[in-house]
C-alpha cells in the first residue's frame, strides 16, 4: 500500500470539488472528485474548524469511540467505471472490522481520527506525476513569466 496525504480541496473548471491526495514525497497526486457536502466536511477537518454541533462524520467518530472502536486506517481500494472505492478499518479490543465507504467519507473520518490514509498498490498507476501536469515548454514559459520555480510554488500551495 502507498501512504498518501490529504493535501486539500481543489475545484475543476466547472466548480466541482476534488480531493487531492499526494504521496509522501509530494511528487505524485491522485485527484478524486467528490460532492460539495463531502468537500465541506473534509475542508472543516483540514482547517480544524470548530463547529457548534457535530457533523455526520464527527457523530460516526464519536459512535466508534463510545463503542470502543478506533479508526485505525483508511484505504482507497479500487477504481471501477470511474468510481473509487474505499474501506474504513476499525480496531476493536477483540478484533478488527472493515467497513465499505465512499472515499470522501473515509477521508473525512480519517482526518477527524488522525488515522493514516493509504492507496492500494493496484491504484498506483492512477496517480499523476506533478511534473507532468505541464509539459516542459509550458512550465519553462510560466517559470520565466513568473520568475519562480513552478513546481515549488505548486507544492507550497498544497500545504
From TrEMBL:
InterPro entries cross-referenced by the UniProt entry: BFN_sf (IPR036104), Bi_nuclease_dom (IPR003729)
Gene3D superfamilies: Bifunctional nuclease domain
GO MF entry, a single one: nuclease activity
Transmembrane segments: none
Domain BFN positions: 1-131
SUPFAM superfamilies: Hypothetical protein TM0160 (SSF103256)
Protein's name according to its UniProt entry: Bifunctional nuclease family protein
Annotated organism of origin: Desulfofundulus thermobenzoicus
Lineage: Bacteria, Bacillati, Bacillota, Clostridia, Eubacteriales
Amino acid at each position: 500500500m502507498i501512504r498518501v496525504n490529504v493535501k486539500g480541496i481543489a475545484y475543476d473548471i466547472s466548480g466541482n470539488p476534488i480531493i487531492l491526495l499526494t504521496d509522501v514525497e509530494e511528487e505524485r497526486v491522485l485527484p478524486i472528485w467528490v460532492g460539495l457536502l463531502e468537500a465541506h466536511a473534509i475542508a472543516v477537518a483540514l482547517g480544524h474548524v470548530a463547529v457548534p454541533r457535530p457533523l455526520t462524520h464527527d457523530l460516526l467518530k464519536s459512535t466508534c469511540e463510545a463503542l470502543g472502536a478506533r479508526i485505525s486506517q483508511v484505504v482507497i481500494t479500487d477504481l471501477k467505471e470511474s468510481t473509487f472505492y474505499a474501506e474504513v478499518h476499525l480496531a476493536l479490543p477483540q478484533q478488527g472490522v472493515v467497513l465499505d465507504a465512499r472515499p470522501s467519507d473515509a477521508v473525512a473520518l480519517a482526518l477527524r481520527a488522525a488515522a493514516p490514509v493509504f492507496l492500494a498498490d493496484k491504484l498506483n498507476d492512477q496517480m499523476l506525476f506533478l511534473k507532468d501536469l505541464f509539459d516542459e515548454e509550458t512550465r519553462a514559459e510560466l517559470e520565466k513569466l513568473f520568475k519562480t520555480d513552478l513546481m515549488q510554488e505548486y507544492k507550497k500551495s498544497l500545504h
